[in-house]
Every structure is written in C-alpha cells, then in structure tokens.
C-alpha cells in the first residue's frame, strides 16, 4: 500500500512549496489538496462532517496554483486535486490547467474530481445542483476530448463547442488518471469515467462492502485510494488488509513548524507499513 498526504492549503498554513518538498523528503508518494472557490455566508447545505464549517474551507488557495508551486520544488511526488469541484469549473479552462500541471511536473498530475456538497456555492457559479451529476459526467467527457484529440469537439446538454485546438496536451497517456470521489452514488461515474475511486472519511469496516459493490458495478478491479485517513495503526492495517492501493493520511492545516512535526509523525506510521 502506498502512502500520501491529503490536506487543505490555505493562507494561514504552510506554503505549498515547502509543503511539497517536505512531503517528498519524507517518502510519501503523493500530495492531494482540496478545493473551494468560496463559501457563501448564508448557507442551507449542512457540513458533511457535522457541526460548524471549519475556516479552512473558505481560505483554500487555488489548487492548480498551489500544486504548480509544489511541482517546481519536487521531482517524484504525485500532485493531485482532492477534489476539484467540476460542477463549478469551465471544462476548457480546467482541461488546460490539469494538462499544464502535468507538463510542468513531468507527468505527475492526478485529477481528483467530485460533484460537491455545497449547493449555494454551486449556485454562485451558475450551476443547478439538481443536475450537477449529469453535468459533471459531461464535463469530464469533454475534458478527455480536449486532452486526447488534436481538434477536440463536443456537443452535449451542458457543454457545446465546435472543433478547437487546445494545448498543452498532458504528458501522461492517454491522460492524467481521474480519481472519482463520492459515495455509492458516484460508482457509475467511477465505472464509466474514472481510473480509481477516491473514498473519503471512511473506515475499513465501512469500506469493505462498498468496494465489493463498486467492483460489481464496474465489472473490474477498481483501484481504491482513501482520502483523509486516520493515522491510527489499527485503521491503517485494516485498509491494508482490504487491498487499498493508496492511503492519504490527513494533515491538519497548520503553520510550517507544526506541519513539519506532524508530517514526521505521519511518516513514522507510513514507514511501519511500507
């Protein structure tokens, strides 16, 4: 099982360049960061984690700017979104951002995607929450066309453009891996459009039957990455027994000194199972 780090990069914590360097120096294989463009002050959508929404949700840096800064000071670590909110993103611009990150990192980009939970945030981007699933599917198909076709063209319900030239193309072929986040409702999206399932906030006991359900729907052995995992050794061992491909240990958003100390602790746990 591989080990990475998942976190929120904000203006109040460690910067993305020293974070990327520290993650790589400690032997982690990946760094995946969250995205929220903003958080509406008046919000009806409940926070999935329960209670008050943490401040880090509305202080996140743009993920592709942050990951590009990390790419500039690293050579090996994979760099991904966990997750990019595709319902709130123009697909042509997003395709270029991911491909640009893949190019400047030498083929190390992971495109982690999801539909999101904050309906008011989506609405501020002009997205209809009731159709966000269909829209995300369509935008992902359009993004893949932009990555893989010399003259990309797409005509759908939500995305519509005649043949275009769009560069750069990704370094990875046919394109950077798409890690699809979400619960059981996302399994058909994983099967059709994903290269892996990005499971979030789960335990080995909760995950085991879901893996079986996903593989039944997909008709194949879908790789699983667990996002925002506990570093409790018993939990880590449970995920290892399930054959999870990658565990992204949760890193709190802290100033640089505290972040480096926490990374040391997380690395010690990962070393026990590597």
Structural features, described:
With 274 residues, the protein is an alpha/beta fold. The chain has a single domain, classed as Luciferase-like domain (TIM Barrel, Alpha-Beta Barrel), CATH 3.20.20. It contains nine helices and eleven strands. An eight-stranded parallel beta barrel has the order 1-2-3-5-8-9-10-11, surrounded by five helices. Strands 6-7 form a two-stranded antiparallel sheet. Helix 1 crosses helix 2, helix 1 (16-25) runs parallel beside helix 9 (256-273) and helix 3 crosses helix 5. The longest helix has 18 residues, at 256-273. The model has no long low-confidence stretch (mean pLDDT 97).
List the helices and strands and how they pair.
Blueprint: E1 2-7, H1 16-25, E2 30-33, H2 63-72, E3 78-81, E4 84-85, H3 91-104, E5 109-114, H4 119-124, H5 132-148, E6 152-155, E7 160-164, E8 178-181, H6 187-193, E9 196-200, H7 204-218, E10 224-229, H8 233-241, E11 246-250, H9 256-273
Please tag this protein with its features:
274 residues, eight-stranded parallel β-barrel, TIM Barrel, 39% helix, 9 helices, alpha/beta
* Coarse morphology: globular
Low-confidence stretches: none
**CATH homologous superfamily annotation:** Luciferase-like domain
Largest beta sheet: strand ordering: 1-2-3-5-8-9-10-11
Between the first and last Cα atoms, what is the distance in angstroms? 7 Å
Largest beta-sheet details: 8 strands, parallel, barrel
Query: What's the architecture, going by CATH?
Result: Alpha-Beta Barrel
The overall pLDDT average reads: 97
Helix content: 25-40%
Beta-strand percent range: 15-25%
Order of helix and strand elements from N to C terminus: EHEHEEHEHHEEEHEHEHEH
Number of discrete domains: 1
CA gyration radius, whole angstroms: 18 Å
Supply the number of helical segments: 9
The secondary-structure class comes to alpha/beta
CATH class: Alpha Beta
- Can you count the beta strands? 11
- Could you please say which CATH topology applies here? TIM Barrel
